[in-house]
Protein 1
Amino acid sequence: MAKRNFSFAILLFFFFFLFFFLFSFSLATNVSYDHRSLIIDGQRKLLLSASIHYPRSVPGMWPGLIKTAKEGGIDVIETYVFWNGHELSPGNYYFGGRYNLVKFVKIVQQAGMHLILRIGPFVAAEWNFGGVPVWLHYVPGTVFRTDNEPFKHHMQNFTTYIVNMMKREKFFASQGGPIILAQIENEYGDIERIYGDGGKPYAMWAAKMAVAQDIGVPWIMCQQYDAPDPVINTCNSFYCDQFTPNSPNKPKFWTENWPGWFKTFGSRDPHRPPEDVAFAVARFFQKGGSLNNYYMYHGGTNFGRTSGGPFITTSYDYDAPIDEYGIARLPKWGHLKQLHEAIKLCEHPMLHGEPTLLSLGSLQEADVYTDSSGGCAAFISNMDEENEKTVYFQNVSYHLPPWSVSILPDCKNVAFNTAKVGHQTSIMEMVPEYLQASMTSPDKESKAPKWGVYVEKAGIWGEADFVKNGFVDHINTTKDTTDYLWYTTSFYVNENEEILSNRNQATLVISSKGHALHAFVNQKLQGSASGNGLNSTFDFESPILLKAGKNEISLLSMTVGLQNAGPFYEWVGAGLTSVKVKGLKNGTVDLSSNAWTYKIGLEGEHLKIYQANGLNSVKWQSTSEPPKNQPLTWYKAVVDPPSGDEPVGLDMIEMGKGLAWLNGEEIGRYWPRRSSLHEECPSECNYRGKFMPNKCSTGCGEPTQRWYHVPRSWFKPSGNILVIFEEKGGDPTKIKFSRRRTTSVCAHVSEDYPSFDLESWPKYTASTKKNIATLHLKCPEGTLISTIKFASFGTPTGKCGSYSKGDCHDPKSIAMVEKVCLNKKGCDIALSKDNFNMGLCPGLMKKLDVEAVCS
Ligand code: GAL
């Protein structure tokens, strides 16, 4: 009996085993490629991919971001892996909070999307030290990104660690997971030669090491012209239509299509027009591309001290299709969504037919794809930057705006033109709210919070770290455990020096390798200086007040994000190189080789007074009138969350420079540093012609970054502890939380451009009743159209937020739009004679512009 039971158990076990084996086997996805595309389970694929970096938002935002990407027509989420966020010291790993990579990948998987894992582990990415841990630079004998044993050892270690982690979770497509591609290294081909003899062997080693990881899906290397088989070399640029991979057996992939650009403190705000992003994508697919990844699709935030640089801002908004706060940026997001729909309608002929190129003019051409089942798709482009053009294609005339591509999924009807933005626009605002004392705080009767104030001493606090004649390098000394390093010295002034008379002041002259400096003499701030995104070195020169006898010079040197790219970038230093006092009787005193006393970091940082368990380790002075313009000051307030549930930005416009935390979470560096008025900001952005980051900038003379994202999930219902460290002086009573929300939405439609739902494309092409142009308006979730601010059918001018009526205007417009749209989530209005006076101003091309308020 026992024996029978035993064999039954074995049989049961066998069946279970078989079931699991078959089950997991059947879930596995086969990913390969040919010259045309990635092949997933035997099917060629056109893929639209979106970079969303997990540590640049918080886990609470991930599902929403991924959902918004999916709704935008995205199939794949792409992320780098951030080595220095994970391997905090050799062999000591962290995967919690924003660094929970497994959780992020699971959310992508649950959304039914694919994932591209760019392991790097060097990533650039405007991320501190390009993602490589700072400790690795101090492992003796290490040189990054070349044929160097310690570097290769640690790189292989980390890559293997991540690969094994992904394997354990069955995340590779070959195991049934979402990962369809993985990347090793990053844009090394661009600098390989500069590394001399170590360059090529390193690149080849990296490729081989990656392939040996046996992940069952292809590897890619971006901007790696010599990527060896089977690794696919891919393109990163503003345009990749002219790119060809290094083998006829590899598909044409675009890993970084930059739909905007990043910002540096003290510079303008770059914007890339949606028409040009769409043009670049359409050209890429026209010319045989099959995978396009937007870098970034959601840029997010460089929380804490994660931003690279130097000088990369805390915001990494990137002018991306989803804004820093997680809200779809319109019209960019919507324009690209429609583009994606149009491209997907072409998928079959594009992937199964060879293209025929037709020249339609000197700068106009069509690429026509026909498949064996009779499918036909065409891309007709006009590369002329100035002129529109009417071209003839298969005996039909097509009007092409300058610098645009028309997509014809059936070789007849235009589904989309990259220069005609049909999607609605929105205007966002930051609604300010002064800080409110928390209900749990002792002073709940007053609304403005009481402040706790703690002022640090300028110079050495506690015991000095060391004394040395001359200067040390800032980064080699702090090892990036903090932004701050004090350099202090003293010198004597004779009683008979004329500079003591106040009429002839002495001058302090300092040179630094970077990045920023506040100079104190006898505990008083004399001035500040800093480099910029182009050149981190700087000079400081300021008159100073000295006293007879001993004068104390305390110089606070700061880094603002470590170098993140470039050949041998890890050797770029920072800190003081020369300090002199001019104007003394004997001329100039050079203090550079003095005995300098050093202190790493701030007292408040050492005591962690921004965290719950360190908060009480200093004596905060409690006041409802905190000091203003006082350097080296810590401020603390217990506050309520701002009302509503919109995303929150901390408004630091009246503050100087420093760091901020909420409930111990690092908001990051703030610095409302103004950009120079000498920079150029065009009054209008011309989308035509090649884009460069400085082409369509805004914000000349304005603070580069005023608001700092504080994720909603960091707030508690009450008793939130906001801690600020202000370096040079500001007014904390002016700090506000601002809620980000949509003020108005605008939509327009013109008689000559039918805007239709691409989802109903087959119905549309089959119907004879074409060209009923229809305006679509939609409010954000949870809001209704409450006011029609503007509506004009005729020849209105201006743009969203500043429309005005033209000479031709149907006076019934407002009443008509109000009737259809008020108190609705959204509405559609056709340009038909039932709705408008279509006979108005004969001969003129009329349009309808609407601005509505959602609340
Ligand atoms: C690329 C790099 C990215 C990012 C980008 C600019 O060269 O691969 O990581 O730095 O430039 O945003």
Protein 2
Amino acid sequence: MSVVAPAIDANPLREGLEQERVPDASCLVIFGASGDLTQRKLIPALYSLAHDGLLPAGQTIVGYARPDYTDDAFRMAMREACDKFARVRPVDDAVWDNFAKGLFYVKGEFAEPDGILRLNAKLKECDQTRGTGGRRIYYLAVPPNFFPVIAELLGREKMVTDPEQGGPFTRVIIEKPFGHDLASAKELNKVAVTTFRERQVFRIDHYLGKETVQNLLVLRFANGIFEPFWNRQYIDHVQVTVAESIGVEKRGPYFETAGISRDIIQNHMLQLVSLIGMEPPVAFEADAVRDEKVKVLRALREFPRGHEIDAAVRGQYTDGSVLGEKAIAYRKEVNVDPHSNVETYAALKIFVDNWRWADVPFYIRAGKRLPKRVTDISIHFRPAPYPLFNKLTNVTMQPNVLAIRIQPDEGISLKFDSKVPGPTVRTAPVTMEFRYATSFGAEPPEAYERLLLETMLGDSTLFARRDEVETAWAWLDPLLNAWGADPRGPELYPAGTWGPEAADRLIERDGRKWRRP
Ligand code: BG6
């Protein structure tokens, strides 16, 4: 990926794991600085980068939000957030003090021209005092309806530079949800490219910042042994599971408009499917990688018109218990309609209609209030061509499975049959395992650390491009519309189970079974 620069202060723990790159100092403005995302993810990630010596001297972070903070009060609140949520804990006082010198706060409403003027004055001041040279990154940690007005004000106040004209960079990071459907995503994209050029826009999908998700590309394209088998000739089917034990927590109002399909499937899940399915890119750089990913999305088989819901199952959790604790039904969660038909679980059987994957089903499922939190991809290979041992007693041959554990206990395992030691021929499945924790010792960085650093470096390989987002919506919209019009609503499943029975039938009617990750 992009430029390799010497580290200012390499952390010995991670030495040798990667080449460290240090960007030019910029002002990173967080719109929505009083929100949950800033406290739980953004500031802790920035602090961890500082701790690892990956932030340039002079890097500046300006929080912008409605509450009345002074710089010092903001710093104190952010220190508390880091004490709770930073990957690198306890927080190192010396690193913090230096980091906090670059933290500022400007109070303002998102749609308030005066607020934006105050912000601009602060940014110019930072250029003088902190050497940020007019470089800007705007992080929109705000609901999507504020995006147009913020973009317009930034444009009007000349706070956005044009990369075609040279000069210091301006970039914008946009959080999901990126639209609600194809039409709204197109609208947002239109606004984005009115003020910014596509290469200035960094659409976050935090799954792409996960180490294990990036390792999918390395596994496939840095090794000679997997690629020859990575196709319909050897692969029987693929499964992807994104399971969460938590419910919707306090996010009822958002989830009521989203459901699991918009929350996870349209973005995180389809990103995983693209990475599993894509052809080798001509280079490991932003457009080459994304060109290949978008081809997978374009090849997704359309839902049969009028029968969209036949290839999918939607579910919703009812009362139950998860990890030994009582869990209430979705319809009883705070700010959720007691008659809601929003899905908290979805399972789909999908196809990538191209030369490599023709007729290989991808069974994908995502759900809240499942028995545990796990994200798992499994590649199920076809059985051996001739069942040589099946005539012997005590022998049942199991197909090989390559399992890629995205989280937790990140790693990769390969299941194959082995002879059980002894005088007779008996077989049993065994697994060969690689685990990040044991092989590399150090904890992988948080997804947001990687993504913030990539934005500062100007590398958008790990961000969704406009056509990816729109193609994903274009494919999913017909199913969402069909569900919206279907009065039967989702099938219910008790919290703490693996989803509705219909999801088991979806795969079992093909003679296959969900893997229990
Ligand atoms: C977010 C969704 O994008 O991803 C959440 O909005 C979900 O609903 C989260 O809980 C899952 O992320 P992770 O990293 O915990 O798998």
